[in-house]
Amino acid sequence: MSEQAVEREYMEYDVVVVGGGPAGLSAAIRLRQLAASEDFDLSVCVIEKGSEVGAHILSGAVIDPIGLDTLFPDWRNMDAPVDTEVTADHFIYLGPAGGLRIPNILFPPLMNNHGNYIVSLGNVCRWLAEQAEGLGVEIYPGFAAAQVLYGEDGAVRGVVTGDMGVAKDGSHKDSYTPGIELRGKYTFFAEGVRGSLSKELIRKFKLDEGREPQKFGIGLKELWQVDPSKHRKGLVQHTLGWPLDNSTGGGSFLYHFGDNLVSVGFVVHLNYSNPYLSPFDEFQRFKHHPSIVGTFEGGKRIAYGARAITEGGLQSVPKLTFPGGALIGCSAGFVNVPRIKGSHNAMLTGIMGAEAAFEAVRDGRQGDELTAYTEAYEKSPVYKDLKRVRNVKPLLSRFGTFLGTGFGALDMWMNNLGLGLPFTLKHKKPDYATLKKASECKPIAYPKPDGRISFDKLSSVFISATNHEEDQPVHLTLKDPAIPIAYNLPNYDEPAQRYCPAGVYEVVRDADGANPRFQINAQNCVHCKTCDIKDPAQNINWVVPEGAGGPNYPNM
User: Fold this and answer.
1) Which of 220, 356, 457, 482 lies in disulfide reach of 372, CB 3.0 to 4.6 Å?
2) Which of 401, 375, 103, 368 is nearest to 241 (CA)?
3) For 492, which DSSP code?
4) What is the C-alpha to C-alpha distance for residues 446 and 459, in angstroms, rounded to an integer?
């Protein structure tokens, strides 16, 4: 059946929000708060592709409470799942056999984590969803936004949710249900990093024109229940260095919170050059470092996940608005890389976007550009937050981890004194263009996981509770099916089989090693988006699977 022949139901709202993360929920909440304050009838809906709000949320996370303070000044008395305040803040530079703790006094004030909170961001989002529904927001989990709706004038008019019950071959199963049109006077895209519709909008409206290419990292995270004698509630610990070499950016975090819980994560900047590098395996061997392993001995790993992170900063933020809508949160990329924080900025941009949309709807407008949002952003704490660290990422890329960190810290100190660099450094290459040929690089021999501290990909995907309906179209689409074997394999030893943290991509061969074939195990996908970012041929296009598919992260 052709797309034109599908009859779709539709629902109309004043504002449609795509994505139930910190930005989307904050936007929805602020819209309803403003409507209530002026006794104005304003309808808002949020759609979320995860099986529930929070199912696809993955972050460290140490949060700056400024976003919560702005949204709910009395949140501390509202039973929010935000109760582990940072009590100790350690930074360690690791070598192969030991580590050197860097004195906190050397770091600029903005790096101080005291006054921040260690949380499960997924649980914070679940709480935000409860507040939103209490204010009258309609939330629909399990529905993926698959298409952008455009009006005859080219303005965005909403989204279409994905069809359900489509077989792998494209035919309609007995359970087929066409997606619904969700029409809005304005639509906010809060899909998170590398959102599939946000990517389309950036391209269609040339929102990245005059901007630097967006930069990314991949963050891998595990949640552990550790021996109570090793738990230090409120401890925040970050590391740089081993096992990554000086030219490969990244680092780790360990956050102690809750009931003997430790979040441990590892970030690899996706501008790395060696196609043999595996971020997942770097993470696993990191946990065996003498300065780290003791925390996990006698403990139990209870969850795993992975997600891309925006790292481009101020110079990579695209134009935020287009006719009929706006990008908010990580769809636009507001992460402060040296602080390793973005949720507060996501919430604040959601709030600013909501205030602009409310004013527009109240004044009888629809489908135009919310320029008031851009104006608010450029005067906001978010802009200030990103401006003072804008040169840190380029310095790391140019000078490597050791010197780049030092130069970045100096620049942040100078910015703190009002004497920072008078110009903004460029990022140069997008991340997919930084790989060297396999022939120029040395393969990396990773140790086998011991099943106690380190693990393999498949057992890790298992505890992410990832699930997709098997008989559905593969959501990891190839623009040219020949490229993985004809181009990526001879040039880069097909890096997808290593950069993917979930074992989605394999090169399989006959028993004699001949006849290589590219295999996509889409059921394993944890929706990290790394393949869409790092594929050197930009041949992989990540699109949404059937709604409710993907990971189901608990307490992540």
Assistant:
1) 356
2) 401
3) H
4) 17
Evaluate the omega torsion of the peptide bond into residue 96 and state whether it is cis, within 30 degrees of 0.
no
Share of residues in the chain with pLDDT > 70 (%) = 99
Amino acid at 531: C
Q: Which two tokens stand for residue 540?
A: 């992989």
CA distance 333 to 338: 14
Comparing CA positions, the residue from 432, 467, 353 lying closest to residue 19 is 353
* Nearest C-alpha neighbor of 486 from the set 517, 463, 449, 461: 517
Helix (H) or strand (E) holding 66: helix 66-71
Encode burial over 355-368: b for 16+ CB neighbours within 10 A, e otherwise: bbbbebbeeeebbe
pLDDT tens for 492-538 read 999 999 999 999 999 999 999 899 999 999 999 999 999 999 999 99
Quick: pLDDT tens for 125-161. Answer: 999 999 999 999 999 999 999 999 999 999 999 999 9
d(CA 270, CA 501) in angstroms, rounded, equals: 13
- pTM beyond 0.85: the answer is yes
Phi-psi region of 503 (alpha: psi -120 to 50; beta: other; left: phi over 0): left
pLDDT digits (tens, 9 = 90+) for 316-367: 999 999 999 999 999 999 999 999 999 999 999 999 999 999 999 999 999 9
Interstrand relation of 261-269 and 216-225 (parallel, antiparallel or unpaired):
antiparallel
**Under 8 Å between Cβ of 408 and 192:** no
Q: What is the pLDDT of residues 295-306, one digit of tens each?
A: 999 999 999 999
Q: Which two tokens stand for residue 545?
A: 């699977």
Q: Is 298 left (phi over 0), alpha (psi -120 to 50) or beta?
A: left
How far are the Cα atoms of 43, 150, 343, 476, 486 from residue 521, in angstroms, in the given order?
A: 40, 33, 31, 9, 20
The distance between the two most distant Cα atoms of the chain, rounded to a whole number of Å, is 73
Query: 535: closest CA among 517, 518, 516?
Result: 518
CA 372/CA 353 separation, integer angstroms? 8
Q: What are the Cα distances from residue 298, in Å, to 231, 310, 452?
A: 12, 34, 9
d(CA 24, CA 190): 5
For residues 468-491, give the mean pLDDT. 97
Q: What is the DSSP letter of 447?
A: P
Nearest to 506 by CA among 440, 457, 436, 447: 457
Tokens coding 478: 């190839």
Q: How many residues does the chain have?
A: 556
Q: DSSP letters of 364-388? A: T--SS--HHHHHHHHTSHHHHHHHT
